[in-house]
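Dear support,

I submitted the protein below through the web form. The confirmation email said the job was done, but the results page showed an empty box. After a refresh the structure appeared. I'm attaching both so you can tell me whether what I see now is the final result or a partial one.
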Amino acid sequence: HVQLVESGGGLVQPGGSLRLSCAASGFAFSSYYMTWVRQAPGKEREGVATIDRDGTASYADSVKGRFTISLDNANNTVYLQMNMVKSEDTALYYCATNGGKYWGQGTQVTVS
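What the results page shows now:
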């Protein structure tokens, strides 16, 4: 069955770094764009970064220059490298196929 399993979240100090991973299985990973989405308490869900099959990435203005999305096609994994994190990056981070057909369960990132 379809699975998107995020990992790598945790507590990090402002200015620090964290790398999120999302392992995909059960669907044709190579056919989908992949995206990272976050949701902070009391706020709407926000698209953070998207990567297409050619490796072209796009980012929300709020994370541009600090976050990097990447793919490991051999291992059906998508990453989100988070650098220079800020308190406002605190949220539950989900990976998903672009368009929202498949979602992971989320991993919590807390910057404090």
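Response: this is the final, complete result; the empty box was a page-load delay. The chain has a mean pLDDT of 96.
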